[in-house]
Amino acid sequence: MITKFGEKFTDLFQKFMPNAFVFALLMTLFTMVVAFLWTDSSPMHILSAWYKGFWSLLEFGMQIVLMIVTGYCIAISPVIRKGINSLCRRINTPFQVYFFVAVVGSLLVLVSFGWIVITCVLARELALKVKGVHYPYLIALVYFTAGSWVYGLSSSIPLLLNTKDNYLIEQGVLNETISTSYSLGSGLNLFMIVLFVIVAAFLITWLSPKKLEGKELNDLLLKDETADEKTIQEEASSLSLPFKNISDKLNNSSLLQFTIVGLALTYIVYHFISHGMDLNFNIIIFIFLVLGMWVHRSPIRYVIAMKRASSNISGIIFQYPFYAGIMGIMIFTGLGENLAILMASVATVDTYPFFAFVTGGFMNLVIPSAGGEFAVIGPSIISAVQEIGSGLPVEEVTKMVVRASMSVAYGESLSNCLQPFFLLLVFPVMAAGINIQARDIMGYLMLPFFIFFVIEALLLTFWPI
Q1: Is 7 a domain residue?
Q2: Residue 9 maps to a domain
Q3: Which of 177, 323, 353, 386 could disulfide-link to 407, CB 3.0 to 4.6 Å?
Q4: Per the structure, how many domains does the chain have?
Q5: Radius of gyration over alpha carbons of the chain, in Å?
Q6: Dihedrals phi, psi of 347, to nearest 5 degrees
Q7: CB-based contact 200:417 (threshold 8 Å)
Q8: What span, in angstroms and rounded, lies between the C-alpha atoms of 19 and 338?
Q9: What separation, in Å, do the N-terminal and C-terminal C-alpha atoms of the chain show?
Q10: Tell me: the pLDDT tens digits for 89-105?
């Protein structure tokens, strides 16, 4: 009965949910209308705010693109393919696939959000090898596991609170940094990790559809893309001239490639010695880049691998500016601040985590970036919590600020089940060669969303500070 309920949601999404880009356009118009009705902004001021924000996520968008192509480049290397094929021989049933991908995917993303690419490659290979895997549901499962990032080492909001001279301190909202021991190291967050990695794995395995009806990956493939495709090594050899020459020696030089790899590894070691476990987007991309060069061994092989890895990233490139434009409207018209003030006006010392949780989830629908979202509503929410906790000991207020901030983060992450934007990270790998859209995936996420919404809301409200 539960799985049939999930299938009903999928049918509704297929009927009513448009393409992800259309969704972005609709959210743009919706935000403009709300800004006009709820703020003092003129239509031209709203348009100017939209244009001003349009370019504000170019760096972040490029980071996401590089995260995908460098991660995918590693995954299609011969050594990784061999390891995945070996693993596939040990997993034989659809339930094993679902559970394994859920656990491994959650653990990978706890280390870094970008490692979802590795989960995508692993899941696709398992779906090719194991019969009976419902592939659209597997894509939804992979997307759901990406939610564990908010509890892990790349969680942007707790890292921001612990960053020296961050904008909250510069604005006078906070007096000093707040250690991640209050956020990522808290009993609540550690319990959330166990809940998400273990309980969620059993839950989404249990919810898997029983009817396949042509939903296996081999059934969905438009053509056998790998049948006539050369290996990377074969393509590299075919590009060489039929006589000895300097250019081919340089193109195929392992010595040149490994020299650069050695220099890069030296810096990576220096980075972690100097900054500790600072796993930001840039260092992760740099590590992926270096690992890709190492596993592909020569410059020409790496160029070919990167070309193949970059073949399906158009959605990210042109959609990110539209969401950045929505963020611009929220920031420069004051709409985001108004929303945070509304939350503060109804919250109490007992209910502020729940309202922060809901606010974070709602804001994610128009600003699918935890850092960008928190820049809009974070200062107002923290100030409201400080006012609610006035008169309490400083330590208690600090814990309340962290609880509210993490509530925003949890809400933002969970509401990705309603927001198809970050499927753009999954589709370049998992949707290659098949005809599938966000509407075919999102319905499977509704039941996990409702279940975890209730669980997380109760924990945030009643877990002791």
Answers
A1: no
A2: no
A3: 353
A4: 1
A5: 23
A6: -80, 150
A7: no
A8: 30
A9: 38
A10: 788 899 999 999 999 99
Residues paired with residue 434 on neighbouring β-strands, in sequence order: 221
Residues 6+ apart with CB under 8 A from 394: none
Residue type at 120 in one-letter notation? C
Contact (Cβ atoms closer than 8 angstroms) between residue 370 and residue 150: yes
pLDDT digits 0-9 by tens, 119-170: 998 899 899 889 999 999 999 999 999 999 999 877 888 888 887 787 788 8
Residue 244 covered by a domain = no
| CA dihedral sign of residues 291, 295, 297, 301 | negative
Helix, coil or strand: residue 277? coil
Question: In 3D, which of 379, 264, 278, 372 has the Cα closest to residue 324?
Answer: 372
Look at residue 425 and give its three-state secondary structure.
helix
434 in helix, strand or coil? strand
Q: How far is CA 203 from CA 123, 264, 276, 423, 448, in A?
A: 18, 42, 35, 21, 8
Host domain of residue 217: 18-221+231-237+249-462
Question: For residue 5, is it within any domain?
Answer: no
309: number of CA atoms within 13 Å, CB side? 28
Give 228's DSSP letter. S
Residue 206 belongs to what H/E stretch? helix 200-206
Residues 9/447, Cβ–Cβ less than 8 Å: yes
Instruction: Give the tokens for residue 400.
Output: 């309340």
